[in-house]
Task: structure prediction
Amino acid sequence: MSATPAPLHSRTVGGIRITYLPDGVANFSYDVFPGSSLECWARHASQTSDGRWVCSIGGFLIESGDQKILVDLGFGNTELEVEGFVSAKSGNLLTSLGAAGATPAGIDTVVYTHMHADHTGWTVTDNALTFGNARHLAGPGEVEHWLAHADESFAPAQQLPFTSQFEVSTDGETLAPGVEIIHASGHTPGHQCVVVSSGTERAVILGDTIHTSAQLEEPDLTFMFDVDPVAARQWREDILTKLQDTGTTVGACHFSGSAFGRVMTGQGRRFWASLGG
Ligand SMILES: [Zn+2]
Result:
């Protein structure tokens, strides 16, 4: 079965609603996981289509009480073709937001798990912040990192002039009742995740801690654009171990099929249990 990008889908966690907002899709050569073998991808064929890894692109809307929080802003109106490496097309995030019943002016907080271009795409529209009433929060050191690396692949070059309007998050910061940031450096220096807790339920939005469900079973699969691959791998293993078999809902923005699932173990392996959508 060929992979398809994750669709728009809402879930409730206690009294909090979380919606995955699709923006687009990228189809990457397997080389984006350096050293990965065809045998490895044959074991995870459900994540691929026509010999490419299918990478969903999108963000999450969290609604807690009267607070609306956007986690990541997709890739924007973008078409990208790098021969033999990646083809990507996006531009649906605002349509997805409308389908979820929200408007740009109604967003209270924008949180960047990190500032790669596929997470910051909708930051600016017509030379102004798209979500003009929102606080914009990035992790410590994140803006500084990209100011110093503005010419790298997937740098948020067009967004950098607007980062003077961003704020720096603190570890454990509460964004709304039951919505907290946790710092998780590795994929980038200021990478962070968002934890949602309500009643007896919990969810974690992992950002780019993990890119494909194949990484649950293949710890050697490391993503080319991890700034610190060793720290990224360590954090990935730590958090997956904490999440497994807990019933916690996991939000994974780049997974194909569904952006929501759970980390399960059984029959001697760890695996992704999709929550559909
Ligand atoms: Zn990403």
